[in-house]
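Researcher: Please translate sequence to structure tokens.
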Amino acid sequence: MGININSEDTPLVLLCPTWTKWGTVTTVKPNTTILHSRADDVVPFEDSEELIKNSGLPSEALIEIGNDHRLADPEPLKRMLDACERTQLVDVTVYYLEMLAPSQRSVQAPRDGLTVLHDQAPSVPHYRFLYDAVGDDYNWLSHRKLTDVELAAVIHDPQNELHVLHVDGSPAGFAELDRRQLDEIELVQFGLMLKFIGQGLGK
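Model: Translation complete:
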């Protein structure tokens, strides 16, 4: 039973907690999220509402999802992933660099077989593949949290550009440029897949 575990400062994501039937704990700590289906016929949804109230948590800490106790459909599973990602304790440092004039530097390709293609109409699944393959080890989450419709609106904007590096025909990394601000170009995403790091391809 999750709420009876001494988890110290680790955030909790609880699924349909059966706190009224087993264990002795009647409250949960502040950094807790509960996912529960109102149609649950095993653990009443009202139990989670009471647990939230007992713990003094905001109503947003209880997320109503799914159509049964199992929470095994695609939407509940996605919401579980989102809740777990939100509770990750990760220190993030963001650096911003600004280029005020074009660089005159010329960099030779480190090897043959390299091609950079401008993907003018990327599909959502293809973009998610690139985004996850490059950013998973760095906890890239911003675009992962978007629905397919929201993500499509971003990547299909004519002022948003996706440039994909291919090595011998296989995708190896990508750069995403945002041109929506007049007279500015933001390099929004940039990176290589793990197996291509260390070969000088980032240059």
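Researcher: Any highlights?
Model: The first strand starts at residue 12 and ends at 15.
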